[in-house]
Amino acid sequence: MKKPFSNAYEAIKKLFRTIFGIKAPEENKDNQEQEGEEKAEEAAAEASEEPEAAPEAEPAKEEAEPEPEKAIQDVLASIAEEEGIKEEKVSKGELDEQKKYEKEVKKRAERAAKREAEDKKKEAAAAASEREGAVRTAIDPVTGEEVAIDDLPKEAKYLKKYMRIQTTSDDIAVAINSILKHQDMPKNIVILGRNGFGTVKVGEDFARSFYDLGLVTSEAIAKTKAKQLNKMSLEKLTKLKGGCLIIENAGLVSFDKLVEVIKDSAPENNNYVVILTGEIDSLANFFEENEDIVDSFIYLIDIHKIKERGMMHLARGYVKEKGYKADKSVFDKLKAALKTMEEGNIDRFIARIDEVIEKCDKREAAAGGEPSKVIIPEDAN
Questions:
Q1: N or C: which end of the chain has fewer CB within 10 A?
Q2: pLDDT digits (tens, 9 = 90+) for 82-108
Q3: How remote is the C-alpha of 284 from its chain's centroid?
């Protein structure tokens, strides 16, 4: 990695070498090798001739000439200091950054391995329960007790489309049913995705379901990115009273600002639900570093493992939720659209389906008559 000022530094070096007639280290090395070869040839030639009397040695001359290379380095060091360049400090800073990066990579790898092991364990247990016809269970986030995984209430219709996505469906069902049982506890949700995911739409579906279930008193939904929230006055959220606040890229929100939001969202103040969405490791780091607020976020929804199959379950559920019909050829085109997106980017995929639905509406409106809400392949072009 080039350090600041390095290009100019090298240019000045070259200029001074030209002035003082000094060759670059590589050139000196080549010249030394060439001189060595020439001297060897001369020595061989001299060895074949008659030896002559050695001339009297001349007294060694003292080198009174300055050392140009040292002068160059002194001038460059002075310039570098004036420009605020401290090469040693820069190098140390880069080393610290590298160590920090390597530590983070290792931590994320360990977390990923742990998650994978836990997921395999859950999947194996679920498969065994299904074979035996046993009731599926999970841990209630509030009590820590093992409870049966109940069906999602019919009022939570916006969340139905996620229920065919393995592991995620359990998280959603457990969270909603636990919130209904323990309404005196914080209702805040954390939606864990993978890097490149857009999960704000999932947050919106929770917010709408909360209203339909009577868990919040207002349909109001506010959405903001963490960096914007960090600079924002919470006075802007007074209209959100009784609704839901969705924070995108929540791993970047400052601790002080989130504490301020938690206080502002309390029942005795503006009484709204906070929904954090973001990349799983960034949020994990945030909560590890800020344990004081962990108790305000009991419910975790893990969708970081959603793959193509899950996305297609989501597409079918979303089309049905919106009241439309589509055949396999339409869904094949939607599957092809997934190739152009980050894997598992729910926000972009839902936006694409909305475009298809809009084309269907325009086509049917142009045809006149009662709309049938049937999506055809051409709508998905």
A1: N
A2: 445 445 455 666 667 667 656 666 666
A3: 12
Q: Determine the residue type at 259.
A: V
Pick from 165, 198, 171: which is nearest to 310 by CA?
165
Query: CA-CA distance, 343 to 197, in Å (whole number)?
Result: 7
pLDDT in tens, 190-240: 998 877 678 899 999 999 999 999 999 999 999 999 999 999 999 989 999
| Neighbour order of strands in the sheet with 221-225 | 221-225, 244-248, 273-279, 189-193, 299-302
Pairing verdict, β 244-248 and 146-148: unpaired
Q: How far apart are CA 276 and CA 299, in angstroms?
A: 10
Burial class (CB in 10 A: 0-12, 13-18, 19+), 212: middle
CA distances from 254 to 63, 284, 336 (A): 64, 14, 39
Q: What is the token pair recorded at 244?
A: 């839901």
- Return the structure tokens found at 152: 């999602």
Write down the pTM of the prediction: 0.66
Give CA 253 to chain center in angstroms. 14
